[in-house]
Design goal:
The chain is an all-alpha fold. The protein is 56% helix and 0% strand. The protein has helices at residues 2-12, 17-20, 27-40, 44-52, 59-67, 74-77, 84-91, 95-100, 104-129, 154-160, 186-199.
């Protein structure tokens, strides 16, 4: 009886050889491997590594890159976390780009451009997405009209009104209008120093 029980336990346990040796190379695993490889293409350093190790000279590898273009279809694109990989996958179809990525300077250039894209993407995107607010009309509140006094003759009005005080500029430079102090002008000070040297 105990030998029968031990046989039953071994067949249902998760560590039995039947469950472990299940063929793992099914469609899901292939999907995950290709997804991981495609997303690695978002890294210019990885593309540089592939170019340095002459993967781009292998026709089978070039064919594999062409095959991977199915990731640009919407039903597959939704699984991609790093969208730059699709851009680089498209660029890798061009032999000139593949050859150029073998040089460290081009790798650094691609890396810098990618950084600047990430840095400014949100702000640039918001400029195009967010609607600009309409200018608000000025709030006009009707002021109560003061009682009208009888109007004097025109000549008396001109003589009685004084000239309005001059409006102050928002930037006054610390000198009041009508002051005898001159503004600090660095050019004038330099000229004065030169004159003093010549005289002394």
């Amino acid at each position: 009886m105990t030998s029968l029980k031990s046989k039953d336990d071994s067949s249902t346990s998760p560590s039995s050889p039947k469950n472990v040796l299940k063929p793992e190379y099914d469609g899901r695993r292939r999907f995950l491997l290709e997804l991981e490889f495609v997303q690695c293409l978002a890294n210019p350093t990885y593309i540089h590594y592939l170019a340095q190790n002459r993967y781009f000279e292998d026709e089978a590898f070039i064919g594999y890159l062409k095959y991977l273009q199915y990731w640009q279809r919407p039903e597959y694109m939704k699984f991609i976390m790093y969208p730059h990989c699709l851009f680089f996958l498209e660029l890798l179809q061009n032999a000139n780009f593949r050859n150029a990525m073998a040089h460290p300077g081009n790798k650094e250039l691609a890396h810098r451009q990618q950084f600047f894209f990430w840095k400014n993407y949100r702000n640039n995107r918001l400029k195009h997405i967010m609607p600009r607010p309409l200018p608000e009309p000025p709030a006009v509140t009707p002021a109560p009209a003061p009682p009208q006094a009888p109007t004097p003759p025109m000549s008396a009005t001109i003589a009685a009104t004084a000239p309005p005080p001059s409006a102050l500029s928002p930037m006054q430079y610390g000198v009041l209008p009508g002051s005898s102090l001159a503004k600090n002008d660095m050019r004038n000070a330099a000229v004065d120093r030169r004159k003093r040297k010549k005289e002394g």
